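seq as requested:
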Amino acid sequence: MDIASIIGMVGGAAVIFLGVFTSGGSLGGIIDIPSVFVTIGGSYAALFLVAPLKQALGLWGILARVFKTYNYGEQNLIQNMVALSEKARREGILALEEGLDDLDSPFMKEGLRLVVDGTDGNVIRAIMENEMSMTESRHMSWINVVNQWAGFGPGFGMMGTVIGLIGMLNNLEDKSSLGPNMAVALITTLYGSMLANWIFGPMAQKLIAQNSQEISSMEMVLEGVLSIQAGDNPRILAMKLLTYLDPKTRKVIEADVLKD
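struct tokens:
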């Protein structure tokens, strides 16, 4: 569970409610079911015009990723790569085939299998970089749909406000209802802003961060595979991969992998 995302959702709601209460309002004053239909329902319906049916319906599962943490095991990845490099130098490249099926990472497994098969380094790089590119493309396709929803929210919020104002202007003879009707009309603008700035906009940024982390781990695997294929010294391989870690994490394992 991603605690940061939980804090963001709960904290955002708390701040909004606090603002309502301290301004003399009430929770019921910002709840309006027709506004929910127009803003949330309308903006979601618009997604079906810009995205395939599969994405529009499957978006909820992607949004759930925001509340999960993903560990790509960069430290273990470096240690495994160094161990495999030492094994390849000690027993030969073909010795790596024995433990391929035990690897957790399909991407690493595919890359090392190409090495064992004697594939040229440039070909390995091309294949693995294409896999990375397609993975990121799929991720960004989903993220784009989330961003689209964030963008549609304020527009439908304004649309709901205009609808409310039209109804209010058609009933101008009732002076006592002008204030309450205006408040209800503006609620949709509030909802649209919330969708863009509190919910879907930040969610898209969290998904972008998760994508960057996964692609970075794949780049580490690529670098390690190519180093093993080229016959690099395990210490050199470790130094290459350690550059992907932040200084604090790097210090935890560099003594183990930078062996003389």
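DSSP finds nine helices and no strands in the chain.
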